[in-house]
């Protein structure tokens, strides 16, 4: 029996992709600015928050606070 290789054979190799930019992490500090357009609660419009999935909501909110 032949071993199976995962993935689609029609897709190009990852190294050959030229339609996206992959950047390394910056070595210098970053500036993050909170504006009046940001949501008031850290659970609103947060891609890391899913209702019912977060066990300790207080710690989650503290992490995303100023």
How would you characterize the overall build of this protein?
The chain has 66 residues and is mostly loops. The chain has a domain at 35-66. The protein has one helix and no strands. It has one helix at residues 57-64. The longest helix is centred in the C-terminal third of the chain and has 8 residues, at 57-64. The N and C termini lie far apart (57 Å).
Helix content: 10-25%
Biggest sheet statistics: none
Q: Assign the structural class, choosing from mainly alpha, mainly beta, alpha/beta, alpha+beta, or little secondary structure.
A: little secondary structure
- Rounded to an integer in angstroms, the radius of gyration calculated over CA atoms is 20 Å
How many H/I helical runs? 1
Report mean pLDDT, rounded to a whole number. 77
List keywords for this structure.
66 residues, little secondary structure, 12% helix
What is the gist of this entry?
This protein has a domain at 35-66.
